[in-house]
Amino acid sequence: MRLAKFAFLSAMGAAFALASVSSVSAQVKIGAVLSVTGPASFLGDPEKKTLEIYVAAINAKGGVNGQKLQLIVYDDGGDANNARTFATRLIEEDKVVAMVGGTTTGSTMAMIPAFEEAQIPFISLAGAVQIIQPVRKWVFKTPHTDTMACEKIFADIKRRKLSKVALISGSGGFDKSMQAECVKVAPAAGITIVHQESYGPRDTDMTPQLTNIKGKADVQAVINPGFGQGPAIVTRNYRQLGITLPLYQSHGVASKQFIELAGPAAEGVRLPAAALLVADKLPAGDRQKPVVQSYQKTYEEKTKEPVSTFGGHAYDGLMIVVEAAQRAKSWDRAKVRDEIEKTKGFVGTGGIVNMSPTDHLGLDLSAFRMLEIQKGDWTLVPESGS
Amino acid sequence: MIVRLAMRYRLAPVALVAAIVILLPLLFPSAYYYRVGALVFIFAFAAVGLNLLMGFAGQVSLGHAGFLGVGAYAVAIGPAYLGIPSWFGIVAGAVLSALIAFVVGRPILRLKGHYLAVATLGFGVLIAIVLSNEAGWTGGPDGMSVSRLVLFGWRVSGADTWYWVAAVTLLTGMVLAYNLIGSPTGRALRAIHDSEVAARVLGVEIARKKLTIFVISAVYASVAGSYLALFNGHITPDVAGFLRSVELVAMVVLGGMGSIAGSVVGAAVLVVLPQTFTALHDYEHLALGLVIMAFMIFLRQGIVPAMVQWRTT
């Protein structure tokens, strides 16, 4: 036993020593801290795969500015404290020139001070508007904000000549953030929120909350800012109760999985989503069409998995950095940052990006498409009319 | 030899840790290492407190991260909404944690074994839910930013500064823990651990002693949480999550229940291992699990007690 213990301890020591040896190279390093495992893995996993695919593709073509890229991905497991540690590691140890990542808003917010202090361009892949408001010099992001999703939904409700809505939302981070944003922007959009309901993350029946909404005579439409399985249950219960008011879901459930979960109840549900979801249904003249089709084809060929908008955000982030470096003709961090801020007319999977010193997102409402679920598939809602 | 010294003099492990703390930075090539070091010390501090409860009083807490959360949000909310200085936030968090531990501990410490574990688990989950739902105060699941600690005009920031601050705090915490163990309360606790019936027969006030140690360990966790929040500058509710509680228990068990130095070793292993295993990419969690299993199979009493035993046999 004594010998076994000794052998075990020596083996552990050797493993430590081996694992801490890192590779040395003269390549340009791009960092990424993603939630590849843990509760946000369905976001982080496609992000990681996308970055790996496209960094390899860029290197196959000779890299950027004559230098090959080296991608360094760390998995924070959805934990903000881990994310911060890995951010420090990217800055201090790996000496990255730019950072694409930060899967969740929590981990992004935890990493921002580190990158601001080190003066390294940081493109976040998380949703909330607080990442870019107030504007921070070195921080950008690619995904649409939940504020925009609210505005897009409100615009569609107005087109239907309705104005009184009820909100039903979960208690997760995405749900709460979007619910708050919707309440905030409703008056400006001419929408009155007449009733609000909420449910827990693991609730399996939302009939009581929906019955409440059904009982309110003045409600004209229902919005469910939600994420995960909750919205599918809301949709099912909604039909079971025979509510006929228009139901809006958020971009948080913009995946085929939602349609599968909600089944026939999803018919007629509308939601705002990125063009990527309806790549093949876009009209021929759409500027985003070639980009989203190409991304979808590449991703699905390499991973054998259906494409998601989340991976698309990572594609946009990486390409914005790469194009900025090409324009700057250098990998100098300050020059790359300045060029990222000057990004104009960049066609990404999330929309057409026009950044400015006061706008570190650069997307407008046209980045979202209003979709309706018909016969178990997405259809584009015509933006004028209805 | 070191181990024999450690066994002869009660505070020798503290001196040993102090020596390591001072010598390690000579090997540090960058601020990243200071950060990992500071994290080890902060989690070790919480683990030492939990070890007092688990290793000496023999009570399991699966909700200790809840106190980590109380401490963390005390230094976040206090300065942001109540205008109190950060250092006072640490104190306020500790007092609040002590109060919560006192109130919650009275009923639940009457429970034993699995029932106690489940009750503490529920308590920890409860705190995490409150932190994540009271978005008006805590910023919800996205968390909130924490203003920097300022002590007598000195702005505590940077990984290297925190390395020293956390190290001094850990060493102080270890000395206090050793003193507590050596005190009549400490002996009473060990008596409870060995046999509650025998301890009661000998006149130990079991309920009160258990409660005392629960409160003390809550204060340890709270201070660690405050440090973590001030160090990171941003805090999210996952600091109080169930997985964090399990991690703390794992640190104590891995390092050795009832060994203060063991808690430091356990924290070091669980903080450093995930960092070294990133080179294994997709297999890092697998490797981490295997290593922990291996530790528990070969060094069943925990790393430090097993090594001490190995030296003396």
Summarize the structure.
With 386 residues, chain A is an alpha/beta fold.
Description:
The complex is a heterodimer of chains A (386) and B (313). By secondary structure, chain A is of the alpha/beta class. Chain A has 2 domains: 28-144 and 291-363, Response regulator (Rossmann fold); 146-280 and 368-380, Response regulator (Rossmann fold). Chain A has 12 helices and 14 strands. A 5-stranded parallel β-sheet of chain A has the order 2-1-3-4-5, with helices on both faces. In chain A, helix 4 (105-118) links the parallel strand 3 (98-100) and strand 4. In chain A, helix 8 packs parallel to helix 9 (256-262). Chain A is globular, with a radius of gyration of 22 Å. The model of chain A is unreliable at 19-25 (pLDDT under 50). Chain B is mostly helical and 313 residues long. Chain B has one domain (2-312). Chain B contains 15 helices and 4 strands. In chain B, the strands form 2 sheets. Chain B has a two-stranded antiparallel ribbon. In chain B, helix 4 (65-82) crosses helix 5 and helix 4 packs across helix 11 (206-232). The radius of gyration of chain B is 19 Å and the shape is globular. The model of chain B has no long low-confidence stretch (mean pLDDT 88).
Shape of chain A: globular
What class, by secondary structure content of chain B? mainly alpha
Largest sheet of chain A: 5 strands, parallel
- Beta-strand percent range of chain B: under 5%
Termini gap of chain A: 78 Å
Poorly predicted parts of chain A:
19-25
Strand-pairing-aware structural class of chain A: alpha/beta
Summarize the topology:
The complex is a heterodimer of chains A (386) and B (313).
Chain A: H1 2-19, E1 28-34, H2 41-60, E2 69-75, H3 80-94, E3 98-100, H4 105-118, E4 122-124, E5 139-141, H5 146-159, E6 164-169, H6 173-189, E7 192-198, H7 207-215, E8 221-224, H8 230-240, E9 247-249, H9 256-262, E10 270-274, H10 289-303, H11 309-328, H12 333-341, E11 346-347, E12 352-353, E13 368-374, E14 377-380
Parallel strand pairs in A: 1-2, 1-3, 3-4, 4-5, 6-7, 6-8, 8-9
Antiparallel strand pairs in A: 10-13, 11-12, 13-14
Helix pairs in contact in A: 2-11, 3-4, 5-6, 8-9, 11-12
Chain B: H1 2-8, H2 12-23, H3 31-56, H4 65-82, H5 86-108, H6 113-133, H7 135-138, E1 144-145, E2 149-151, E3 154-156, H8 159-182, H9 184-194, H10 196-201, H11 206-232, E4 234-235, H12 242-255, H13 260-276, H14 284-298, H15 303-312
Antiparallel strand pairs in B: 1-4, 2-3
Helix pairs in contact in B: 2-8, 3-8, 3-11, 3-12, 3-13, 4-5, 4-6, 4-11, 5-11, 8-9, 9-11, 12-13
